[in-house]
Amino acid sequence: MHLTEEQLNEYLDEATTERAQIEAHLSSCEECAARLSTLQNVFAELDSLPELELTKSLAAPFTLHPSLPAQLPKFLTLTAFLQAAVALVALIVAVPFASALLPQIELPSFTKLFFQIQTQWTVWLDQLSTFNLPTFQPINLPTLEMSSLLFTLAGVSVLWILGNGLLLRNQMK
User: How far apart are CA 23 and CA 4, in angstroms?
Assistant: First the structure.
């Protein structure tokens, strides 16, 4: 059985724990001794070569280069501009309707709302301590009446967000 290339290389590098067995084998096997001699000659020739600097960096294709941010395609830039213009016009049109609704909406104070939540929590804890299934009493929050224009604006906003998501889907990959 002959020595492997790995064993010969480790022997030359003095990185083997089987040094005595390898030397015993080399003294009895002319073929392995010849292979070792060839490896020693190759390494001696490599050591005698002059050190040259590379003319081209081999690492360049593999290193990260900070690049300028990619510009959006023109149709996306135009789309975003048009959407912003439509949103601005919609806001200008909606302001009089929204301002007319604001005096009609009565919002509870923070303390009233907090007190209602705390009361509900204590009722729930009392019911839980008696091992009854909790029954929740609805909190009387004011109902907001939304005009059809505001509802339409909300729907258009959702469609706008979805449209932007679809347009920019390929840009995120």
Answer: 14
- As a whole number of angstroms, the distance between CA 106 and CA 51 comes to 84
Around Cβ 32, how many Cβ atoms within 10 Å? 20
Task: Say how many domains are in the chain.
Answer: 2
The first and second tokens of residue 90, run together, are: 């919609």
Over residues 39-65, the pLDDT tens digits come to 999 999 988 999 888 778 777 777 766
Residue 39: give the domain boundaries. 5-49
Residue 38 lies in a domain: yes
119: nearest Cα among 98, 144, 138, 96: 138
Helix 19-28 / helix 30-48 crossing angle, nearest 10 deg = 110
Q: Are 7 and 16 in contact (CB under 8 A)?
A: yes
What global pTM score does this model have?
A: 0.33
**Exposed (0-12), middle (13-18) or buried (19+): which is 8, by Cβ within 10 Å?**
buried
* One-letter amino acid of 83: Q
Distance CA 94, CA 152 (A): 10
